[in-house]
Amino acid sequence: MIFYELYLRSFYDSNGDGIGDFKGLEKKLDYLQNIGIDSIWLLPIMKSPAFHGYTITDFYKTNSLYGNIDELKQLLNEAHKRNIKIVLDLPINHVSVSSEWFQKALNDEKPYKNWFIWSNNKTNTDERRHWGNDKIWHKINDKYFYGLFGPGSPDLNFENKELWDEIKKIFKHWLNIGFDGFRLDAAKHIFDYDKKNMKFKYQHDKNIKFWIEMLEYIKSIKKDAIIISEVWDEKEIVKKYDGIFEIGFNFPLSYIIKDSIKLNDAEKFVKDLKEVMPAYFKKKPIKTKSGNFLTNHDMTRLRSELKSIKKSNFALNILLTLPGIPFIYYGEELSMKGKLKNVNFTEDGEEPIQWSEIGFGPGQTEWKGYKFNTPYSKISVEEQHKNPKSTLNRVKKLIKFRKENSWIENSKINILENDKNMVKLSINNEINSIIIHYNFKSSKTKININEDKILYYSDNVKCTENKTEIP
Ligand code: ACG
Q1: How far is the centre of ligand 1, averaged over its atoms, from the C-alpha of 456 (Å)?
Q2: pLDDT of residue 462
Q3: Bridge partners of 42?
Q4: Considering 185, 192, 305, 350, which one is annotated as catalytic?
Q5: Please, is 48 exposed, middle or buried when counting C-beta atoms within 10 Å of its C-beta (0-12, 13-18, 19+)?
Q6: Which residue has the least CA distance to atom 52 on ligand 1?
C-alpha cells in the first residue's frame, strides 16, 4: 500500500469556484495512479465552518463546497475501478461550536447537554493545554465548556454511553457510502480529562476500551475496513496502543528520519530506528503496522524543514524503502514548501497544488494565495513532469521499485549498522532479502559492495558495481 494524504480544498477544482472538490479529484485520479498511489487518506470532508474541516457541524453531511453525496459516491466508484482505496478522516473527539448538538446543549436540551463537558466548582477554568499553552475551558453564556483543541471545538463527553451508539451510526453511514476505512483523529483524546477532579488527564485504558468496541462494530460491517490511528506521542505511549489498530502513525519515526538527515548523523539514525520500530527487529508477528511518514498537515513541510531539495529527496528515499506503510503528504512529491508557526496555522502547509507553471488555469484551486509556493518556482506538475530529475519523477521511480518489491511492507530488519556516514540495512522475509545503503554525507561517497543479493542504493552513493541505483 502506498498512501497519499490528500487535502481536497487544495487539489483540483471542477467548477471554477477556486475550491477543490469531489469531481475535481475524480478527474485527477489518473495523476495519482500514474505516480503509483493506491490508497488515499482523505482529510475531513464533512460539513464544517473551518477550512481544515476538523470541527464538524453535521456528521452525516458533506461540505457542500466539495460536492454532494452522489458526487462523492461517484468519486469512490471511480477510485475503486482503478484499485485505489479511500480512507476517510473522521474526527469524532469534538464538534463545531456552531453544530446543532452543541447549540441544543447550550439550551439545556436533552440528551445533548450530557454530550459535552461543563465545568463545576472543582474546575480551574484557567488550566492550560500541555502543549502550546492554550486555554482548555471556554466561557459561553456564563458556562464553561471543555474544548482541548480550542474555543471552536467543544469536546464530546464519552462518559455517556448513548454517544457511543451515535458514533457507531456515523461510522456505518460513511462505510455504506463506500469508504474503505477510517483515519481515527486524536485517538488518544477520547478520554483525556479526569472526571473526578475536572482536570486534563489522559486515560489510555478507557480510550482503548472505546476503540476496541468501535473497531469491532466497524469490522462487523466491513470486514476488511482499513483503520489508521493518530496517537501523536512518545514511543512509550504509542506502545500502549499496540495491537489495537491495524496501522498506527509512527510520529517518533518521522522525527528521527528528519533529525538524522539534518545533522548528517548516520549513527543517530541507526540507534534510534531500533527504538521506534521495535516490532520490525523481532521475529514475532507485527500487531500494529508502522504508518511511516515524513510530515503531515500539522507539520512544517518536508522541504522547508530540511531546507534543501537534496535532503528532502533523501528523506523520501528512506520513507519508501523501510518496512511498514508509507504515507506521502500531498505536494511532497513536488517538493512543495510551507512553514507552520504552530499547529493552529496549518493553512501555511496546505497551499494549492500547482498544476501549471504559471500557477493559474483550469482546475487550479485558488482558495488562498501563494505564500510559499509561488508560480514559476518549478514546483508545478507541468514542470516536474517534463524534468526527468524532478522530485515527481524520482518519487515515481521509488514507488515503482517499492511495488516491484511489495514484500518490503511486511518484512523485518535483520541488519542495521553504520560505518561513519553510511548506513547498511538488510531487510528480509522468508523468501526475499535486500540490502540498502543510505548515505548521510552530503557529498558522493564510493563504497565497495560484495553482497550478491539484490542491492539498492540511496542517492549520493557511487557504486563499485553496476547494481540497482535509484533514482
Ligand atoms: C489532529 C489533526 C489536527 C486537528 C486535530 C483536532 C487533531 O491532525 O489537524 O486539528 O481535530 C495534538 C493532538 C493531535 C492533533 C494535533 C494538532 N492532530 O494529539 O491529535 O495536536 C505534542 C502532543 C501531541 C500534540 C502535538 C502537537 O503530545 O498530543 O498533537 O504536540 O504539536 C515530540 C513529543 C510529542 C509532541 C511533539 C510536538 O515528538 O513526543 O508528544 O506532541 O514533540 O511537540 C485541527 C486544526 C486545529 C484546530 C482543531 C480543532 O489543525 O488548528 O484547533 O482542528
Answers
A1: 35
A2: 46
A3: 6, 88
A4: 185
A5: buried
A6: 344
Q: Is the CB of 207 under 6 A from ligand 1?
A: no
- CATH at 314: 3.20.20.80
* Residue 378 domain flag: yes
pLDDT at position 464: 43
For residues 369 and 438, state if they share a domain.
Answer: no
- 194 catalytic, yes or no? no
The pLDDT assigned to 345 comes to 82
Residue 258: name the closest of 299, 216, 225 by CA.
Answer: 299
Q: Do 56 and 47 meet the contact criterion of CB atoms below 8 Å apart?
A: yes
Q: What is the pLDDT of residue 436?
A: 84
Query: Which pLDDT belongs to residue 401?
Result: 87
Give the structural domain span for 108: 100-146
Is 382 a residue of the active site? no
205 with 353, same domain: the answer is yes
User: Do 201 and 140 reside in the same domain of the chain?
Assistant: no
Q: Could you tell me if 65 and 110 lie in one domain?
A: no
Shared domain for 236 and 266, answered yes or no, is yes
Of 180, 230, 332, 333, the active-site residue reads 230
Q: Are strands 39-42 and 412-419 parallel, antiparallel or unpaired?
A: unpaired
Task: Report the complex ipTM.
Answer: 0.97
Q: What is the pLDDT of residues 139-153, one digit of tens each?
A: 999 999 999 999 999
Domain end among 407, 430, 451: 407
For residue 269, tell me if it sits in a domain: yes
Centre of ligand 1 from the C-alpha of residue 343, in Å:
7
| Domain presence at residue 469 | no
For residues 62 and 68, the answer to whether their CB atoms sit within 8 Å is yes
Cα 466 from Cα 211, distance rounded (Å): 50
Both 403 and 415 in one domain: the answer is no
pLDDT averaged over 10-residue windows placed end to end, the chain, 471 residues? 98 98 98 98 98 98 98 98 98 98 97 96 93 94 95 97 97 98 98 92 97 98 98 94 97 97 95 96 94 98 96 93 97 97 88 97 96 97 96 93 92 92 89 86 67 51 47 47
- Domain contains 155: no
Q: From the CB of 250, is ligand 1 less than 6 Å away?
A: no
Split into its structural domains, the chain has a count of 3
| Amino acid letter for position 238 | V
Is residue 145 in contact with ligand 1, taking CB distance under 6 Å? no
Cα 96 to chain centroid distance, Å, stands at 22
- Pocket probe for ligand 1: among 57, 149, 190, 347, the residue whose CB has the most ligand atoms within 8 Å is 149
Q: Can you tell me the distance from the alpha carbon of 120 to that of 196, in angstroms, rounded to the nearest whole number?
A: 10
7 lines ligand 1 (CB under 6 A): no
